[in-house]
Amino acid sequence: MKYISTRGNAPDLTFEEAMLTGLARDGGLYVPETVPTMTPDQIAALAGLSYEEAAFHVMRPFVGDAFTDDEFRGIIARAYAGFRHEARAPLVQLAPNHFLLELFHGPTLAFKDFAMQLIGQLFQFSLARRDERVTIVGATSGDTGSAAIEAFRGLDNVDVFILFPDGRVSDIQRKQMTTPDDANVHALALDGDFDDCQAALKDMFNDFDFRDGVRLAGVNSINWARVLAQVVYYFTSAVSLGAPYRKVSFTVPTGNFGDIFAGYIAKKMGLPIDQLVIATNQNDILHRTMETGAYTKEGVTPSISPSMDIQVSSNFERALFDAYGRDGAAVAQLMDELKQGSFAISQGAMEGLRETFASGRASEGETMATITRGYTAAGQVYCPHTAVGVKVAEEHLGATPMVTLSTAHPAKFPDAVEKAMGQRPGLPPHMADMMDKPERVTRVPNDLGALQTLIKDRIANR
Ligand SMILES: *Cc1c(COP(=O)(O)O)cnc(C)c1O
């Protein structure tokens, strides 16, 4: 299995190389050269398997000969051992044809644990075998950072630096990043917003001297291995609801487009997905793009669903690559135009995108109202991201069962939830003492040179 760049101008890599690399050297994102398919019989055979065993069957064709079957099963087993629900990704019914897929039973209470815990184990295995070290730098709007820290803390071959926008993550998100006391964990509060963090990260990757000097590796949602890990729960949930004999739809609270892109891959693999609905908050670049065909940056307005507060959506590039018939030069040109703030998507490409994706948007008021209604009507407590999904899903209900992805535990966003339903959601017991632990964090300016110096110094002094 080979991986190619969406901009058509970087070396082809194996699964392991693509995973350790993250962003391609031409600025593009790695995608599999061909997407392996599963037959209806193979999909049906997933019914009743453990999450781990289903994950093995869904992901195996993508990893090529990187691992033996036993090694890969071991990696998956270790990745999900810390989850606090036997089913890993349980389904809950909300209404006659509406289901919630709970993706928050991992160590940091958000769906990003599904990908990050796996990537931690994959890195550990690969780096030990190659006798190599890497520096992981991640940018986070909140949940990626803590998930990365939980996945890599204490590992010998990895230093992990997480950039987050100072003052723009919730207290719990910040505590999750700043309270782990492992020497290889570095939480950096950047003076800027999430897009500044993401831009700093991209610049570091594009500075090849720095990149090679510190052996930079990326675990942001652009990392293909993360997308792959997320494909699994589309299969397990759809099979629980009758796939491959019955179609299933999904609504996905969306920011960087990694999670919903995994659903798109599941569909390409043969899972009978009817609608794939992009749900955005007021930072709605994707919804506007689906409506108008123009992908136009606007400023970020902080919302009560901060993990979806984005100006540009990195993984959308992967969908564009397919919509443009896998023409890397065309994608590179669009991304170049985006530097001026906007690009127009061709009519043919838009038709392709609209065939696969629907979209909707929830305002802050609608999100709050959905949390209130979920609690009074069904006793459900939604985090604000999930509430955005539920609201948009309700606009797309039909004859096909709809699964809304519940991307975080409500206790990660207690202020908004308390305001909406009059009660403060409690942290699970195993995390109750986190708020009292001392924090370790370094405030950094939005300045590439200063960041690079800090990272080099920290590694040298470890
Ligand atoms: C990251 C995140 C999202 C958005 O996922 P993308 O893959 O970036 O689209 C939604 N909800 C929560 C809670 C998240 O942490």
The number of helical elements comes to 19
Q: Give the overall shape.
A: globular
Please name the CATH topology of the domain at 91-105 and 224-421: Rossmann fold
Largest sheet: 6 strands, mixed
CATH architecture of the domain at 91-105 and 224-421: 3-Layer(aba) Sandwich
Q: Rg, please? A: 20 Å
Distance between the termini: 37 Å
- What percent of residues are in strands? 15-25%
Report on this model:
The protein is globular and about 60 Å long. The model has no long low-confidence stretch (mean pLDDT 95). It has 19 helices and 15 strands. The chain is of the alpha/beta class. Helix content is 45%, strand content 15%. The two termini are 37 Å apart. The longest helix is centred in the first third of the chain and has 19 residues, at 112-130. The protein has a domain at 91-105 and 224-421: Rossmann fold, CATH 3.40.50.1100. The strands form 4 sheets. Strands 3-4-14-9-10-13 form a 6-stranded mixed sheet, sandwiched between helices. Strands 8-5-6-7-15 form a 5-stranded parallel sheet, with helices on both faces. Strands 1-2 form a two-stranded antiparallel ribbon. It binds pyridoxal-5'-phosphate (PLP). Pyridoxal-5'-phosphate is lined by residues 110, 112, 143, 221, 253-259, 307-308, 385, 407-408.
What's a concise summary of this model?
The protein is 45% helix and 15% strand.
Descriptive terms for the model:
462 residues; alpha/beta; Rossmann fold; 6-stranded mixed sheet; 5-stranded parallel sheet; 19 helices; 15 strands; 45% helix; globular; binds pyridoxal-5'-phosphate
